What does this fold into?
Amino acid sequence: MLDVRHEGDPAGEPVLLLHGFPQSGAAWDAVWPALIQAGYRVTIPDQRGYSPGLRPSRRADYRVDALVEDVVGLIDAPTHLVGHDWGAALGWALAARRPELLRSLTAVSVPHPAAMAKAAVTSTQALRSWYFLVAQLPVVPERLLLARDAAPLRRILRGTGLDGEATERYVARMREPGALTAALNWYRGLPLSRPTVGRVEVPTLYVWGEQDFALGRKAAETTADHVVGPYEFVPLPGAGHWIPERHAPELLDPLLRHLDRHR
It folds into this structure.
């Protein structure tokens, strides 16, 4: 069972906030209060593997189809989906496969999967995505990242721009029994998943940090080729990967406009 928080007026229009690796629903703590103030009701899950009550150990349990079905189970009416990192990847998949469930999509950091795949062979994106291959190894990544009281994981998160408080919160979660294996299984389940995500007709906002260490400009700019509905691309100068935690004000400005436009 997923751990899920609900905030705001139950009668408000729904917004679903999905986190990525190695975050938790707390990634949105600087974002959701403004959504509540604007009259929305917010649902914030800790996703599969991050919730202790739903932490299977097999990588097959982390296929994208299974992860998307978790999201479907959280939707009781057409909703605005806002996802960061892996949460954005699930948003793209859900928008393409079940558009009737969404009023709008906001993808933060991660581009459309087809744009990402093309950029991997036409730009430096494959080099940026080296960690996808490392994550496929059994056991080794867990041992490396959690060695010496999780010092390597802590160093990676701080080195890529995450603040100390959030780093310690996420490291503590990843040190729970089976938690890091579950989080890495999101990457390990990808080769077992349906290979393609189609074009998106849902009204879409894509927010990308120009200094993102993992996701380059090529995929960000060509994401527009895979959205046939209303689309807005907002690059954030000076922003890195951890946009919800580190750049919430810059995210909230286009996000609130986008949500209000598609109420």
In short: The chain has one domain: 3-261. Residues 140-159 form the longest helix (20 residues). The beta strands are 3-7, 13-18, 40-46, 79-84, 102-108, 204-209, 231-236. Residues 131 and 206 are 23 Å apart (CA to CA).
